[in-house]
């Protein structure tokens, strides 16, 4: 691909921003993600403030994520058959409505644990369509397969920048205002991405032919019979079933282990976000997708060690350092695998491959969170994370035996996709 003058002026780690459509998406997504993180922290604090239940934190997180596992794979097949931009605008509008309803219930003091669970389930169902829609559209926004890995890394950088900045802001807002105000901010934040998508120009991606069932089965066959994709998805499942479950228990650590409040919770979230943000800067500068395989394996190992440290310590400075490492490790693994899958998969199958990624990423995060909540109610939050860290360490030892074959097959698959 010949380089434009603007592309040559940009640093290697930001080259995807040379594409005008991606710049529009990037700006709208930045505002939307910040609002989403503010709502997520406010919601977890609301649940624990109302009930004091670690198990209910797990149930709420489970309901917010489990639709990704159940609905997500079929959503990818459905998405590949429809106009992705039009449906992204519709789904984002419904997500804004969900946030405003949650704000209204809180403001009127009508909120109950039952309502919270229903609202989390509604958001999770919408997210089953939203995540694959956004991810699969990124390729059309950059219009270049060479710049796609960088665009995906920059998109993840936005997510993690919001994760770094949003929770401390949410902690401050919760101290100064209320959960209702935080939910309302999130509702308005969706308007930024909706506006950006309306301004995007260009041809929409081609749609898949056949019934949803046929399209779904075609995607499943491709993912199952491609050895590297199969094992990368297994790695996602192992990581998110264990390491990602820490998020559910953070309010317990903030209040009961470190004797803090919503501000302490914000700092714990922010520390993990800091590590995750650093990981996406690292990934954005990678020039070789096959080299990302080594980073993914290292990310799983770092996550296991950080889980063990965070679960065992009662000192807040040490816990914050462990959160930075855990955020880095989880993000390197999740974002790196997304980069590999989308760069290797044929464009016609991208919506389905992305849906399998989001299903494994968020669906098993939901199962892990539910499990962690109940185990923590019986054994304590610290013991729970130590057990999960030990289980992930065993998986790391197995993953090391697959590393060379994974790198070789990813490199070969990317070469074939460029050939097409």
Concise account of the structure shown:
The chain crosses the membrane at residues 24-48, 54-75, 180-200, 231-254, 266-285, 292-312, 318-341, 362-379, 385-402. The protein has helices at 5-9, 20-51, 54-70, 72-80, 84-107, 113-142, 148-176, 179-199, 212-225, 227-242, 246-257, 262-284, 289-312, 316-344, 350-379, 381-400, 403-419. With 420 residues, the protein is mostly helical.
Defining traits:
globular, 84% helix, 420 residues, mainly alpha, Growth Hormone, Chain: A, single chain
Account of the protein in words:
- There is one protein chain.
- Helix 4 (72-80) packs antiparallel against helix 15 (350-379) and helix 12 packs parallel to helix 14 (316-344).
- The chain is built from 17 helices and no strands.
- It is globular, with a radius of gyration of 20 Å.
- Helices cover 84% and strands 0% of the residues.
- It has one domain: Up-down Bundle (Growth Hormone, Chain: A), CATH 1.20.1250.20.
- It is an all-alpha fold.
- The mean pLDDT is 85.
Question: What is the topological layout?
Answer:
Elements: H1 5-9, H2 20-51, H3 54-70, H4 72-80, H5 84-107, H6 113-142, H7 148-176, H8 179-199, H9 212-225, H10 227-242, H11 246-257, H12 262-284, H13 289-312, H14 316-344, H15 350-379, H16 381-400, H17 403-419
Task: Write down the overall geometry.
Answer: globular
- Count of DSSP H/I helices: 17
Order of helices and strands: HHHHHHHHHHHHHHHHH
Count of folded domains: 1
How many strands?
A: 0
Summed over residues and divided by their number, the pLDDT gives a mean of 85
- Return Rg in Å: 20 Å
Low-confidence stretches: none
Strand content: under 5%
**Which structural class is indicated by helix and strand composition?**
mainly alpha
Name the CATH homologous superfamily: MFS general substrate transporter like domains
Largest sheet: none
Subcellular location: Cell membrane
Transmembrane segments: 24-48, 54-75, 180-200, 231-254, 266-285, 292-312, 318-341, 362-379, 385-402
Keywords: Cell membrane, Membrane, Transmembrane, Transmembrane helix, Transport
Organism: Dechloromonas hankyongensis
